[in-house]
């Protein structure tokens, strides 16, 4: 059974940093591109960042580019998101999601349960 | 930048009725990259439909997806109480950026 378990959320002041982790099990983690997706009541679902299966390629939404860093440790089956210079508008539930790619058919299939990030002074 | 617009924002129906949800893209997109999710309160989104029309594993056949180009539709043929939730469409982009619609709330 595929499982994605996020951790690391919490309360942080504006300008602060936080590192999220996502532990994966039930599939070959090193073969799967992964993403972080966040959700706020006001803005709905927003893709944040993606990383290729070997970590060699990383991609970011314009809203987080230059502040967030996505990485992975395939030896530990773990995905990370280092969030720097946090803003009030970064407050959200952050989900770890698995990409499934079959030819030209591509989508996010499995989602973790999410971890809540609150940015407030 | 692709923008996905879902309509209606809220759909009020009764069990047994048919629900039709729309997802319109600002540009033509490949149907192989159009996805539908269901989200219930306090839960993560759940994959329903991928490739615009293929049901995910375990999804009942009352859920169906269709469309091409800029217009995509999710139909729930006979609503059951557990179907009342928020539905999102996603375009899995190639740049890659991935875009979600703003959601349709399906309520009793």
* Through-space gap between termini of chain B: 34 Å
Largest interface, C-beta within 8 A = A-B, 22 and 24 residues
Kindly estimate the percentage of residues of chain A that lie in beta strands according to DSSP.
over 45%
| Number of helical elements of chain B | 0
| Helical run tally of chain A | 0
**Percent range for helical residues of chain A?**
under 10%
DSSP summary, beta strand count of chain B: 10
Which oligomeric state applies? heterodimer
Q: State the helicity of chain B in percent bands.
A: under 10%
Structural class of chain A: mainly beta
Specify the biggest β-sheet of chain A. Answer: 7 strands, mixed
Describe the 3D structure:
- The complex is a heterodimer of chains A (121) and B (108).
- By secondary structure, chain A is an all-beta fold.
- Helix content of chain A is 0%, strand content 57%.
- Chain A contains no helices and eleven strands.
- Chain A has strands at 3-7, 10-12, 18-25, 34-40, 44-51, 58-60, 68-73, 78-83, 92-102, 105-111, 115-119.
- In chain A, the strands form two sheets. In chain A, strands 2, 4, 5, 6, 9, 10 and 11 form a seven-stranded mixed sheet that branches. A four-stranded antiparallel sheet of chain A has the order 1-3-8-7, with no helix packed on it.
- Chain A is globular and about 45 Å long.
- In chain B, strands 2, 4, 5, 6, 8, 9 and 10 form a seven-stranded mixed sheet that branches. Chain B has a three-stranded antiparallel sheet with strand order 1-3-7, with no helix packed on it.
- The model of chain B has no long low-confidence stretch (mean pLDDT 95).
- Chain B is mostly beta strands and 108 residues long.
- Chain B is 0% helix and 53% strand.
- The relative contact order of chain B is 0.33.
- The chains are: A mainly beta (121), B mainly beta (108).
